[in-house]
């Protein structure tokens, strides 16, 4: 019998959204090969789920391009402190804001704290997410359904609603993290995939609503990426094969996704709004 193609050592974590420190190997987030050129000089970005994985990498890349960063996270304090150090190592300021993005009051407070600290907000990255295996609709509990929607899509409304009071006309940016599951579905992530589809509609609709202000709203739809959400969501044997079915035959790293956010936040994409970028290892399902 042929040996299965394993991408990572089998591993899992017991709680969401997961911790980065126990992961083997560590996700690649810093992009040592990436050279900043001042594309976001003097700007301020708030990133939800910015303590690890894709969010952490985006924070680092934004900082390398000259932005100050507010990192919003749930309670992964050690990961968040490391993310803050990484941003500060790029010579930029960083604040940490811990709390639950499924709560509208917290989202409002997080935006206000960012304004108090930095005096403005230029870029909002809605990136926080919750996922858990769920293949049978008959067994989907109301509590899990509501939790998934409140974190994955309600928080995008909460954060964006408050941010729009402060984002500057003709320069304000909102970037939403959706997923490849929004396009091809996933029988084992029924509720999660549905929220990711909602994010695409939210992105397209909000972009049309604010385009007259010159505020651009776009999204990124990653494929399988090596982040804490993976071992926190799946059993060890599934984690071990993450990404092996992509065209590239491997999972992506956060640092391979972060440049898409830089592109959408910078002037490079000044004629792009309501669109989605697909760093997914070659999956053609992007319609």
SSE layout:
Blueprint: E1 44-48, H1 53-64, E2 68-73, H2 77-88, E3 94-98, H3 104-118, E4 123-126, H4 142-163, E5 173-177, H5 181-184, H6 190-210, E6 216-220, H7 236-239, H8 254-265, E7 276-277
Parallel strand pairs: 1-2, 1-4, 2-3, 4-5, 5-6, 6-7
Helix pairs in contact: 1-2, 1-8, 3-4, 4-6
Question: Would you write up a description of this structure?
Answer:
The chain has helices at 53-64, 77-88, 104-118, 142-163, 181-184, 190-210, 236-239, 254-265; strands spanning 44-48, 68-73, 94-98, 123-126, 173-177, 216-220, 276-277. The protein is α/β, with parallel strands linked by helices. The protein has one domain (44-277): NAD(P)-binding Rossmann-like Domain (Rossmann fold, 3-Layer(aba) Sandwich), CATH 3.40.50. It has a seven-stranded parallel sheet, with helices on both faces.
Structural class assignment: alpha/beta
**Number of distinct beta strands:** 7
CATH superfamily: NAD(P)-binding Rossmann-like Domain
Specify the helix fraction band: 25-40%
Largest β sheet strand count, sense and barrel closure: 7 strands, parallel
- The arrangement of helices and strands along the chain is EHEHEHEHEHHEHHE
Strand content is 5-15%
Overall shape: globular
Summed up, the domain count is 1
Average pLDDT, rounded to a whole number, is 95
CATH class: Alpha Beta
Ends apart, CA distance between termini: 38 Å
CATH topology: Rossmann fold
Stretches where pLDDT is under 50 for at least 5 consecutive residues are: none
Q: With helices defined by DSSP (H or I, 4 residues minimum), what is the helix count? A: 8
